[in-house]
Amino acid sequence: DAGITQSPRHKVTETGTPVTLRCHQTENHRYMYWYRQDPGHGLRLIHYSYGVKDTDKGEVSDGYSVSRSKTEDFLLTLESATSSQTSVYFCAISDPGQGADTQYFGPGTRLTVL
Amino acid sequence: GDSVTQMEGPVTLSEEAFLTINCTYTATGYPSLFWYVQYPGEGLQLLLKATKADDKGSNKGFEATYRKETTSFHLEKGSVQVSDSAVYFCALQSNSGYALNFGKGTSLLVTP
After folding, report:
1. What are the tens digits of pLDDT across the range B66-97?
2. pLDDT of chain A along its 114 residues, tens only?
């Protein structure tokens, strides 16, 4: 299994509070992604990173920001959480430059916004 | 834009039955196609993939063939087991980027 961890694994928070989710990898993969999974929608891309300090928006980026100061860590921040951001969040990694275009997923973080 | 459509679930089968989960896609160019599986409470795992037309991906008895003429990548298994119960996602990776575009997922329940 790819070395990907996510923290926390579960979080309950209140509307309006800031929340940061962390993805940590030990594979030295260049690309990292944040997806959210919701019933009836599959997985949708929030943001991705193609290197340290290099990030770009995905399909559902509104209300989210990301940062990547080290190869191994990719942070997802909800500046002011809303109930519509209740979801399961998955981090993924890949490295096309190493011939590994396959994405490997972390175990997920279940976030509930009350 | 690119999109993936897969059959609605849930699908319920008896053990040893034949499985087909349909997946069709819309994309420009020549995307790569993937099937991922998600077991209860876990993240997604790559099941198989195909990167060009007529390629067949296979793993753990599952197979899927990249059909450009029908823009399809249907997942099949000849004899399912209870342990195959999971949610299956078809996904597309365009040749202009690295992010995945997922279908909505198909839940499979295999009963003894």
Report:
1. 999 999 999 999 999 999 999 999 999 887 77
2. 569 999 999 999 999 999 999 999 999 998 999 999 998 888 999 999 999 999 999 989 999 999 999 999 999 999 999 999 999 999 999 987 655 478 999 999 999 999
10 Å CB burial of residue A38 (0-12, 13-18, 19+) is: middle
Q: Which residues of B touch A41 (CB under 8 A)?
A: 104
Cβ atoms within 10 A of the Cβ of A50, count? 16
Least CA distance to A37: which residue of chain B?
Answer: B104
Kindly report the backbone phi and psi dihedral angles of residue B77, in degrees, each rounded to the nearest multiple of 5, phi listed first: -150, 135
Rg (CA), chain A: 13
CB contact under 8 A, B102 and A43: yes
CA gyration radius for chain B?
13
Measured between alpha carbons, how far is residue A1 from residues A4, A29, A111, B4, B65 in Å?
8, 14, 24, 27, 25
The residue to which tokens 């770009």 are assigned = A56
Which residue from B32, B43, B44 is facing A101, i.e. has the nearest CB?
B32
- Within an 8 Å CB–CB cutoff, is residue A58 touching chain B? yes
